[in-house]
Design the sequence.
């Protein structure tokens, strides 16, 4: 931490804070920033930070991971995806293990890379397994449009995309954790803007602040939350986020995708919280092209990732944390992803107050 603002922000929090404040961050990058900077150790005793469902790999259900594996095993398919997904345990295997056994699994940096691959290898069926929130969905939408424009007929998408606002409603409805306010995701909000969060204040009397990703950004968001005299949705990350969001990206998503039910690890099926390819693009949906059959999903034994994602369990309090479950040998997805709360707590345990 090098910002000269940090001591002043900490002093402000100590002056303004009161007992029993619980703030949840719902962005994996915020989770990493908080742990890396040791912010929990700097905060006054009355403020507690908990992590929520902000890691897209982590919230992907075991059943959906099994579907990805089933697709990858088809002999005609080349399965492409982002790197984080490769090591995440499905019920009985991982994509990394399947690749080691000869299955054609390839890591790409962009879904457009998958389109290029499909064009270069027309004899293969190239499937992109798309995960993420509103941050990555526009790029996948652009890839679908690009494949159609080029006439690349052997490219398809298995959309496991999810949208951010509805799981916040689900968390508040569950009421397991008394949430005083949300540190709202910066990257997602660049696309969505603020209107999608207004229900937090109007219906639940819970405020939120969209934060940037430096330690002082997170602390500034906390100061803004503590100072709220009435619940409100505010932008702390003004150098990147506008109230209306990115209208071009919103239109792109609305063109290619339609809302669908989505299965969230730890939260179950949340109606309307997913993104499926819209009717006019269903020929590019992998589930339409291929029959995907899976066995009954099996959850990782002893893994408490679902409870961690709901903010009811600190990663360090999981019985497997740091012993049976480590980044080198993960049991659950929260220890795999670079944005996972378990991985963050383990990687920065020396400064993050993990005993």
Sequence:
């Amino acid at each position: 931490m090098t910002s000269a603002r940090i001591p002043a922000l900490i002093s402000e929090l100590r002056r303004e804070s009161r007992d029993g404040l619980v703030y949840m961050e719902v962005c994996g990058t915020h989770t990493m920033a908080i742990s890396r900077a040791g912010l929990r150790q700097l905060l006054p005793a009355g403020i507690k930070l908990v992590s929520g469902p902000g890691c897209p790999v982590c919230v992907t259900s075991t059943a959906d991971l099994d579907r990805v594996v089933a697709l990858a095993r088809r002999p005609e398919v080349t399965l492409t995806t982002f790197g984080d997904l490769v090591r995440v345990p499905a019920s009985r295997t991982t994509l990394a293990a399947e690749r080691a056994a000869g299955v054609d699994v390839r890591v790409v940096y962009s879904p457009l890379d998958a389109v290029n691959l499909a064009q270069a290898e027309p004899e293969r069926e190239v499937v992109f397994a798309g995960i993420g929130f509103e941050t990555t969905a526009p790029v996948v939408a652009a890839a679908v449009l690009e494949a159609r424009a080029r006439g690349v007929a052997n490219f398809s998408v298995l959309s496991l995309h999810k949208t951010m606002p509805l799981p916040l409603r689900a968390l508040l409805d569950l009421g397991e954790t008394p949430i005083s306010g949300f540190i709202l995701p910066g990257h997602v909000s660049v696309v969505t803007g603020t209107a999608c969060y207004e229900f937090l204040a109007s219906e639940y009397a819970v405020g939120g602040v969209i934060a940037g990703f430096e330690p002082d950004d997170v602390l500034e968001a906390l100061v803004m939350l503590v100072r709220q005299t009435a619940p409100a949705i505010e932008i702390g990350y003004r150098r990147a986020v506008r109230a209306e969001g990115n209208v071009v990206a919103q239109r792109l998503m609305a063109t290619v995708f339609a809302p669908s039910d989505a299965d969230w690890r730890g939260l179950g099926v949340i109606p309307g919280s997913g993104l499926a390819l819209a009717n006019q693009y269903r020929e590019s949906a992998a589930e339409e092209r291929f029959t995907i059959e899976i066995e009954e999903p099996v959850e990782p034994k002893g893994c408490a990732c679902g409870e961690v994602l709901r903010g009811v369990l600190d990663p360090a309090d999981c019985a497997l944390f740091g012993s049976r479950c480590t980044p080198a040998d993960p049991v659950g997805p929260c220890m795999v992803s670079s944005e996972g709360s378990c991985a963050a707590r383990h990687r920065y345990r020396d400064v993050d107050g993990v005993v």
Q: What stands out?
A: The longest strand covers residues 268-277.
